[in-house]
Design a protein that fits this description.
By secondary structure, the chain is of the alpha/beta class. The chain is built from 5 helices and 5 strands; from the N terminus they run E-H-E-H-E-H-E-H-H-E. The protein has one domain: Rossmann fold (3-Layer(aba) Sandwich).
Length: about 140
């Protein structure tokens, strides 16, 4: 049985390379009835100074969206993009998923060593353990 993702898919991306690679991993599973919402969460520092200006981070998100859209145009799915803001990336992704009534959140786990995972809170693990909607971890292409 082959997996297919019809309905609305929320696709979080972290950087331009991730956006392109994750989109490439998603394309084989999309159908004509699929709709993809590519999102990037701009993590706010919660009272502390942000690492970069909002304008810089929004421009970086646009670069991610362009890379993802360049791949997703080969699929039959409709595509939209959204910049999200939050103090916790995983919580913000699932809040958006629930607000939009998406059918699934799809992502590509990023590679990292144990120390990196410990320091960053292992977003991939949290994506699966704290899911409030179905989650699909896409294979690396």
């Amino acid at each position: 049985m082959t997996l297919s993702l019809s309905g609305t898919v929320l696709l979080p991306v972290a950087d331009p390379d991730d956006a392109e690679e994750t989109a490439e991993s998603l394309v084989p599973y999309l159908e004509e009835t699929s709709s993809v919402v590519v999102v990037n969460v701009i993590e706010k520092a919660g009272g502390a100074p942000d690492k970069a200006s909002v304008e810089q981070r929004e421009a970086y998100a646009e670069e991610m969206f362009e890379r993802a859209e360049s791949v997703l145009t080969s699929s039959p799915a409709t595509v939209e993009t959204a910049v999200l803001f939050g103090t916790d990336v995983v919580d913000r992704i699932f809040d958006e998923a629930e607000d939009r009534g998406v059918d699934v959140v799809a992502f590509s786990p990023r590679e990292g060593n144990r120390l990196t995972e410990l320091l960053t809170g292992d977003v991939a693990r949290r994506m699966v353990k704290e899911a409030s909607v179905p989650v699909v971890a896409l294979p690396h292409r």
